[in-house]
Here is the input.
Amino acid sequence: MNIRHTGLYKNFGAYAFLLLLSAFVLFPLAIAVSQSFMTNQEVNRWPPKVIPTEPTLEGYRAVVTQQDIRLDLWLRNSLFAASGYTLAVLVICSPAAYAFARLRFPGNRPLFALLLVTIMIPGQVTLIPNYLLMRDLGWLDTFNALIFPGAANVFGVFLLRQFFMQIPAELEEAAVLDGAGYFGRFRHVILPLSTNALTALAIFVFLGHYNDLFWPIIVTSSLETRTLPVGLSIIQSSYAGQYRPMILAGAVLSTLPILIVYALFQRRIIQGVTLTGMGGR
Amino acid sequence: MSTMNQRLDGPRRLSLPFSVNLKTREIIAAYIFLAPFLIFFSIFFVRAAISSVSISFHDWRLLRPSTPYVGLDNYIDLFDDDIWWASVQHTVYFAVMTVTGTTILGLAAALAVTRPVRGQGFYRVLLYIPQLMSVGAIGLIWNWLLSGQFGVINYLLSFFGVRPINWLGDPNLVLPALSLATIWWTFGFPMLIFIAGLQGIPEHLYEAAKIDGANGRQAFWYITLPLLRPTILFVTVTGVIGHFQVFGQPYIITGGGGPGRASWTVIIYLYQNAWVGFRMGYGAAVAVTIALIMAIITAFQFFVISRRVEY
Here is the structure.
């Protein structure tokens, strides 16, 4: 797209709207950050104060010292479970996508069509049987329950298959001449050429898992295996009436890591979201 | 590079360990590649989906060993339950409001960002921030912003002469309030999809329209909007599916669906019955019914989206 930076005057409407929209987006965040530095008395006041008169770290101190709040542990749990899940999705889905995209075997087309049909069956239908299976396997309150049940991701297979199919067959033929077997071709030709698609899928499933609340609520029960969203929901239900700056400090602290990652990889993340979003078409 | 060197050495073939022809080898390889996926998919999806239907025909309670067969009783009870129908109504109301809001806001944002303005990339990155936050964090923040007593939303409204409103305590206002929070949280995804859609519209169409004397508004109504039709459909239908499954916002912001049951959604209903009331059989019937409703919506999506546009 060709971008011409014409004058402020000509695009006045667009500038005004973008400023308004930025204010709409930033305002709740700014209030949360600002009020997290207040005392409890200052927060519970009408009309509300927007800037703390004397900024204090009380809320932050409370949120890291409170016995039943373990933000650092919950963050580590979330990162671990989401990374484990992402890795499992990539390891399980990419070879399957390769088989569907490139290998001739009886049942390729019908099997793939059947998989596409199952996309229409929403995941809720699996919740109760999978919960009971976790219980019977003794996986309740373990990371296994957070990592494995969703690892066979049909959308991931679909997305990667589309991508693998666009890779020119000549590249693989060259590898065949070099004596590469199917695994060698997959590992040394297909995967290195697909880093964009693999990264996009990884970002997509990582963020989805990192922000999931329902499944972690039902399969985890102890403070030590909770993920960040579950932990935050517990803070809200236990302390809502009592200590607001601490709750806001929890929200701020839990958001910081993802914002740092976003600041570093924003282009890739935005590309990834767009690519996976369009892949769903 | 190593591949180059190998090619100079001449083609090398791996000797076959036992005598199978290439076709059979390919078939064996294919099933080895597929095996991990198929195993996981069979256990955690196929088995689970079938088992769900079977459990829904039983009076299956979590803490009781016997699970008598009850036929369609769970479905009949569900059909007779006013709370279920209220939850369906809340969910539809919430989803329609939220999808309308995110679609319009997402499109407006995409149009503004794709204008030749300074800092395009910056705005794109900034406006996508809320979408990256977890429902936990946005829940904590919006519960406080919407507070009837000390909330900043009421403070802003007070400048327009509006008296303090008890957003989360009023059964008529709680769903619009949750929807507002959700629009703020999730309009970034439609925005990115619309940006991609807008960039796919050929520039020459606008040039031709300009030559024909069309103004900006006409170009929007007669070029942009019709050509964005598939994108709008994609955004609205995936939005409906996503927001129909709303759980975290009422679970956190209204403490599990309050006031009373005014913000119970279908997934809250499922959670309350299966994991608070321990009624797995009834919960399975709820899950199967929700799945059916969503399958119908998704089938509709496949139907409309598979139709292509022509320029």
